[in-house]
Amino acid sequence: MTKDQIIVKMVMDRWNASIENCNKLLNAVNDEQLQREVAPGKNRGIYLLGHLIAVHDSMLVLLNMGEKKYPELSKAFLEEADKVVTEIPSAKDLRSKWNEQKEDMKQKFERLTSDNWFERHTSVSEEDFAKEPHRNKLNILLTRTTHLQYHIGQLVYLK
Amino acid sequence: MTKDQIIVKMVMDRWNASIENCNKLLNAVNDEQLQREVAPGKNRGIYLLGHLIAVHDSMLVLLNMGEKKYPELSKAFLEEADKVVTEIPSAKDLRSKWNEQKEDMKQKFERLTSDNWFERHTSVSEEDFAKEPHRNKLNILLTRTTHLQYHIGQLVYLK
């Protein structure tokens, strides 16, 4: 195993474990719990779920894996704070998108070689990437893993 | 820049940014706020601060950088849940330890080469490490970064 294969495994393991933790947590709360604020005056569980799906949907674009699958979620869950957009998808709908996305990303990620992960992501130019080679696809996976962990720390309060 | 240098920079950047986020957050709340539960019935801010210092203290041992500096924190903040141990250090004391530890770790981490980060950590045997080379020092830094982010997501509710 070369060092780049080792590190891709390390980051991928962290991503997969975080997704699995979040998934377990979602399965442990019912739709009514998901509608509650995770703490008084803070985001609702359903907002955090929509937010995670929207952020992970944007990852696909950054990783050059196609267009967003759920562009309709951006307004309510990325651009605006919780409760600003009053009409949002149901818990059932978001759970179904979460599961679909989880499987889709898993398959797409498994197809990438470790060399692919060290390629530039789509929001950095070739010129900048030559000077800043850490702005690669693996860094997208890494930063979204820490982002996910941050919100898992909050979602856990729904239980 | 070789791939292993790139990835060490990536993980180190995540660690440093997370420590700085947490530090800003701690500076934005006063001692009285730190004594509060982050959400009703959940951990107090001061417990999470003590917990982070204790976990980061254990990192030094795993990274083969010496003994724990604050072994007296293990009982209250690692082994036991919040409020089990009634006599805990003051917010002032923990803040001072946090700052001291932050500087100490920074200096120690800067001394490591990227090759050092790919060495085995102290809780894996040479035999196992030969088979599982991802159980290296960089993985300790990575997993503690995601752990830190999880608790930052909670500490932010003190504000």
Give a topology summary.
The structure is a homodimer of 159-residue chains.
Chain A: H1 3-28, H2 31-34, H3 45-62, H4 74-79, H5 91-111, H6 114-117, H7 126-131, H8 137-155
Helix pairs in contact in A: 1-5, 1-8, 3-5, 3-8
Instruction: Name the average pLDDT of chain A.
Output: 97
Please tell me how large the radius of gyration of chain A is.
16 Å
Give a short account of the largest sheet of chain A: none
Question: Uncertain spans of chain A, ≥5 residues at pLDDT below 50?
Answer: none
Oligomer: homodimer
State the CATH topology of chain A.
Four Helix Bundle (Hemerythrin (Met), subunit A)
Which architecture name of chain A does CATH use?
Up-down Bundle
Question: Count of helical segments of chain A?
Answer: 8
Name the helicity range of chain A.
55-70%
Quickly name the level 1 CATH class of chain A.
Answer: Mainly Alpha
Number of strands of chain A: 0
Strand content of chain A: under 5%
Query: SS-based structural class of chain A?
Result: mainly alpha
Number of domains of chain A: 1
Q: What is the H/E string of chain A?
A: HHHHHHHH
Description:
- Two copies of one chain form a homodimer.
- Chain A is built from eight helices and no strands.
- Chain A has 159 residues and is mainly alpha-helical.
- Chain A has one domain: Up-down Bundle (Four Helix Bundle (Hemerythrin (Met), subunit A)).
- In chain A, helix 1 (3-28) runs antiparallel to helix 5 (91-111).
- The termini of chain A are far apart.
- Chain A binds chain B through residues 1, 3-4, 6-7, 9-11, 13-14, 18, 38-40, 42, 118, 133-134, 136, 138-139, 142-143, 145-147, 149-154, 157, and chain B through 1, 3-4, 6-7, 9-11, 13-14, 18, 38-40, 42, 118, 133-134, 136, 138-139, 142-143, 145-147, 149-154, 157.
